[in-house]
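Weekly structure sync, notes
Attendees: PL (lead), two postdocs, one rotation student
Agenda item 3: pending single-chain targets
PL asked that the sequence for the first pending target be pasted directly into the notes so everyone works from the same version. It is reproduced below exactly as submitted, 235 residues in total.
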Amino acid sequence: MVSLQQELASNSYPGRGIVIGKSGDGKYAVTAYFIMGRSSNSRNRVFVTEGEGIRTQAFDPSKLEDPSLIIYAPVRVLGYDTIVTNGDQTDTIYDGMASGETFEQSLRCREFEPDGPNYTPRISGLMHIEGGKYDYAMSILKSNDGDPDCCNRYTFTYDNPKAGEGRFIHTYIGDGNPLPSFAGEPTKVDISGDIDAFTEMVWNALNEDNKVSLFVRFIDIATGKYETRIVNKNK
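Predicted structure, written out during the meeting:
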């Protein structure tokens, strides 16, 4: 297990990232989702609440260029399931699971983003909390080492996660041209502090120039009730 703070601080451009795990006291299912940007179009965004989830929105609508890959709902809730992703595949998972498909099956119709030469991976997470029990899954759909002719699909599932432990998956292993895709399984990271301390730690660890927005949610495993924090650089 590595320090989430150090993992974030050591990478100037992890892109978009999802953290899922369990709080140190074992009471809460924890997730965080952040977005970063290098272009003015990517940086011109904020998170806003939408239903039980969130949506990205242009901070200055007059400066919005191509909305296709930057405006979407990263978080939606379907019954006992909380879906967190880095793109419009949130809706694909929601619709697929609503019709009886599994998390993995619902993503079979999707691939990495069509933004060559980066071919940004689609990363997704699913948290299931029911009857005082909690498990989660994570997925990444990526090109074959930059070759768009093949989509590599990986799904990781975690039953009864340990307190104070989480997994972190993000789009890029660092800055570059083209941007190098995340590789390997989700990184095991520490989860510590209450929701405010955790939110502050993640936000402060992200690169000051590139960070855009952060969403954090703590879900009470016993009751299903949740608290949410949203931090936007644009105000």
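Discussion points:
- DSSP finds five helices and 13 strands in the chain.
- The radius of gyration is 16 Å.
Action: rotation student to compare against the earlier draft before next sync.
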